Amino acid sequence: MVSILQLCLIIGAAAAGPSKMVRLVPAMYVFGDSTLDVGNNNYLPGPNVPRANTPLNGVDFPGGARATGRFSNGYHVADFIAMRLGLKESPPAYLSLAPRPTALLLSALATGVSYASAGAGILDSTNAGNNIPLSKQVRYMESTKAAMEARVGKAAARLLLSRSFFLFSVGSNDISVFAAAPGDVGT
């Protein structure tokens, strides 16, 4: 696990500007909401699922105006943190990999996986049915971990995970859904 001091150094390095960095962690695992989603929501069914599948959601991303699944016109915070950790960008979306178990396993072992989903909250009821809530993101990670253990063994998987970076950003949707709820608050 990355310590608070290491995280402060990473954030400080990010503020200092681009540099050539060595890889500080073997992988990065991302959990949260739209601030970190790299495309999971584009794979969810339903008409009310928030999606980032238009060219504007990537117009400033390297490679031109193509949708990236990010709720951003280019890189977002997970990408910048990943780059400072020595990775190319935020790891790929879980749902883009899940239909191909070998691809999921290789990504999990080589760079990590993003489980983040726009609209997600800590509570399963937050924007229910239109995202992957945090509890389900954690279950997806548990199944990924089991696949990693089956492939490389428990000790190797545990070592890789203990040296990896886990990024969480979730909770703001819980607050906004609660604030928008009709009725008297606090009675």
TrEMBL record:
<protein>
    <recommendedName>
        <fullName>GDSL esterase/lipase</fullName>
    </recommendedName>
</protein>
<keyword id="KW-0443">Lipid metabolism</keyword>
<dbReference type="InterPro" id="IPR036514">
    <property type="entry name" value="SGNH_hydro_sf"/>
</dbReference>
<comment type="similarity">
    <text>Belongs to the 'GDSL' lipolytic enzyme family.</text>
</comment>
<dbReference type="GO" id="GO:0016788">
    <property type="term" value="F:hydrolase activity, acting on ester bonds"/>
</dbReference>
<keyword id="KW-0732">Signal</keyword>
<dbReference type="Pfam" id="PF00657">
    <property type="entry name" value="Lipase_GDSL"/>
</dbReference>
<dbReference type="InterPro" id="IPR001087">
    <property type="entry name" value="GDSL"/>
</dbReference>
<dbReference type="InterPro" id="IPR051058">
    <property type="entry name" value="GDSL_Est/Lipase"/>
</dbReference>
<keyword id="KW-0378">Hydrolase</keyword>
<feature type="signal peptide">
    <location>
        <begin position="1"/>
        <end position="16"/>
    </location>
</feature>
<keyword id="KW-0442">Lipid degradation</keyword>
<dbReference type="GO" id="GO:0016042">
    <property type="term" value="P:lipid catabolic process"/>
</dbReference>
